[in-house]
């Protein structure tokens, strides 16, 4: 470990001394201080926090990613090129220890940078959201809904799967399934249509959702109902509606009349509305004066939010997730740098990251191609080249898909908890799986490399 | 597993062909060489530029992979990590981290040998003193001259008190004092039972220190054997004579003339340039003045000599001048009255004696 640590400290010093890294770190500093001061948002407290938190952290992440990749690629490749590695590998040090040491050095650099970023963001946030800056209700909203980590519980999914299956069977039995259409695609479409139906409230109608909370909200903290809808009519005006709140066990019920336009809104509800079985039932009546349908969002239509952690905890977990991402980039850069010389290593790793960023896009390509193959040209098979390309796309997609997980910054800046489950999942995917594989490959190939020859 | 024999380095049918990116042969650097080096020996690899010396050394260290042939270092293949604990290596150029200071550099390599903190500190102090850089320990390597960096390279090769020291052109870039010192160091190491493998094209250096040499040309061993066997000219003799009066000399010459039946040749010894250089530097130093470069340095780090004993600790320059300068004689004296000594008297032998007297050879 002593050896690994010695190598880590050298790697740290090497990268901190690189001109590229110095420039980027300066840019990072400018970003952290500059973004909150220049970007104003729409003036609401939410947008202020949004800008500060998500823009600053996203930007600093990009800069750190570039720094890490660059230093990772340079760490071993430059030492091979100028023969400094000769004096390291002729000591009793394993190549795995060298790899690990360099990786550790980059981790230390990133840990320090992220820590400073976190402290800066938190400090600026505390400064910009101080009580004197805002009206009383805005300040309260900031403290209760934005600068917290709230648990988000979606409404229980209506049992559409069974209904959709039955409907599909009926279609197939009566021969009404469109020719050339796969049953899977038909099922997805039917299910989606049913979900939209169960989430829409027609003129004069009432619909209810039940939400089961996983834990009891902490005493003394508000519980929020958050909802999001669109209107079926072309005129997007505020609509009158009536919310009912209750639960199965208690007879207590609350009615709240509201007139709000389409979009996302939230409503504080009393703690007591959460039943003993932790269930809440919410209903909505469409009592608008003009006939219009209120379409609740299929995924985020009705949700309950309640306090779980203070904001700092959430910020730390978000930074931890960013750290895992950077650790993966460090591993990628290092492994490329053990195989190739500097520019080649940098280009290769950037190429891989671009592939990853566009893996969603690649997914659509493969799906479109699949659809083309089956519907437009039912009897003609794909050409060999097309099949090969498809195969390659699918392979790349399969390899990189697990890396595109959800963005913790969105959760953080909207005051939703970034759970330990997400952190653990990220750790598992980014560190255990991908860093493990990339690092293992790096060490394996590094071991076989003849270091006496520079290029 | 301990190696059984006394052979610490063995090379058998070694070949190295450098290939280009497409695998086409580009240069045949080493072309089937064999040699063995025994424990405690000073082995020199000689050869002109590009003859494959560095290539061979890099293969011994596992930096290059042989195209064909077998290599054993301390009974292990060259890529064995554990046997590196017992090897010290000085590459042909100093490949050091420019932003580290001399101390940090040595500390880093010391850490790679898992040496404890106090041990590293102690050895670094001694090594810096030995290579004459005790005053520049806090300066960064990038400020160093070539020779200064080279001295640090030498120091790092010895930080683990190695059993085998592999030196690729150890004297290149060094000033005469440094060169002298490295040669003394090599001999001291050999006396302590360590094996030294070095390459050079400076024949004088090799001749002074090596027990055995191999001459490489075009990647092949052209000659190999002990220095004595290879260089001794059996039918010629040198008789060192000193302190003769002119009369005595005339007598000796007469006897020789009668015995040989021919006029014997008579030569005066000359100070060599090395001695003259030492004198000039010594005078300059005596007159004071800051040094930012390398000093003369102490003789040999204590830990390299064995634990209990301490070296003389004197300045090597002083030692050399004291021990090696010929007896000062009146400069303008009659040539005939000067002592007659063979040219190139083996002065090195004396300093070696001085160093060698300091203790018994010790393993580890
Ligand atoms: N990386 C390499 N690629 C191709 N050829 C090489 C490489 N390294 C060395 N060579 C060739 O191998 C031969 C031997 O080189 P080597 O460095 O061993 O010589 P050397 O005896 O150490 O010479 P010098 O006295 O100049 O240090 C030379 O012809 C050289 O051109
Ligand atoms: Mg060489």
Architecture overview:
The complex is a heterodimer of chains A (about 450) and B (about 375). Chain A is an alpha+beta fold and about 450 residues long. Chain A has 14 helices and ten strands. Chain A folds into two domains: about 1-150 and about 310-450, no CATH class; about 155-310, Jelly Rolls, CATH 2.60.120. Chain A is globular. The longest helix of chain B has 16 residues, at about 175-190. In chain B, helix 3 (about 115-130) packs across helix 4 (about 145-160) and helix 9 (about 275-285) packs across helix 11 (about 315-325). In chain B, a hairpin with a 5-residue loop joins strand 1 (about 5-20) and strand 2 (about 25-40). Classes of the chains: A alpha+beta (about 450), B alpha/beta (about 375). At the A-B interface, helix 1 and helix 4 of A face helix 2 of B.
Secondary-structure map with pairings?
The complex is a heterodimer of chains A (455) and B (364).
Chain A: H1 2-17, H2 19-38, H3 45-81, H4 86-89, H5 95-128, H6 136-146, E1 148-154, H7 160-173, H8 183-198, E2 200-201, E3 206-212, E4 223-231, E5 239-246, E6 253-260, E7 263-269, E8 279-286, E9 294-296, E10 302-310, H9 311-339, H10 342-357, H11 359-376, H12 384-400, H13 408-413, H14 420-448
Antiparallel strand pairs in A: 1-10, 2-9, 3-8, 4-7, 4-9, 4-10, 5-6, 5-8
Helix pairs in contact in A: 1-5, 2-3, 2-5, 3-5, 3-9, 3-10, 5-9, 5-14, 7-8, 9-10, 9-14, 10-11, 11-12
Chain B: E1 7-19, E2 25-38, E3 42-46, H1 53-60, E4 68-73, E5 87-90, H2 102-112, H3 117-130, H4 146-158, E6 164-168, H5 176-191, E7 195-200, H6 203-209, E8 212-217, E9 220-226, H7 227-231, H8 246-260, H9 273-286, H10 302-305, H11 316-324, H12 348-356
Parallel strand pairs in B: 3-7, 3-8, 5-6, 6-7
Antiparallel strand pairs in B: 1-2, 1-4, 8-9
Helix pairs in contact in B: 2-3, 3-4, 5-12, 9-11
Residues 18, 26-27, 29, 47, 49-55, 92, 201 of chain B line the site of adenosine-5'-triphosphate.
